[in-house]
Amino acid sequence: MISYPSIDKLLEQVNSRYSLSILSAMRAHEIDDGDEKMLPEYKSPRSVGQALEEIASGKIKIDPNSIMTERKAEKIERIEEAKLEHQEDLEHKKD
Fold first, then answer.
1. Does the predicted TM-score (pTM) go above 0.85?
2. pLDDT under 50 in the chain at which residues?
3. In a domain, 2, yes or no
4. CA atoms within 13 A on the CB side of 24
5. Assigned domain for 1 exists
6. Which of 14, 46, 51, 69 is the S-S candidate for 27 at Cβ 3.0 to 4.6 Å?
7. Per-residue DSSP letters for 33-79?
């Protein structure tokens, strides 16, 4: 359950829970991949929480001209998961 930022505050920035979920997941992956953070400090130690804080602050918005479909978003998620698994495999081989 999300306690901070509140779901009401988040839904002021993003018009649906589904869109919020996809947007926050995509941004969290960017943060995990080392992208620059957009706030000076965060309450959450986790990348998903940090992404939600950025969304609530208005720093992250959905592009109204985007044509990303649910299928494309799911494909991106599968690719990101495969990259993470590959990195973990490489780290285990080093040990």
1. no
2. 1
3. no
4. 25
5. no
6. 51
7. TTPPPSSS--S-SSHHHHHHHHHHTTSS---TT----HHHHHHHHHH
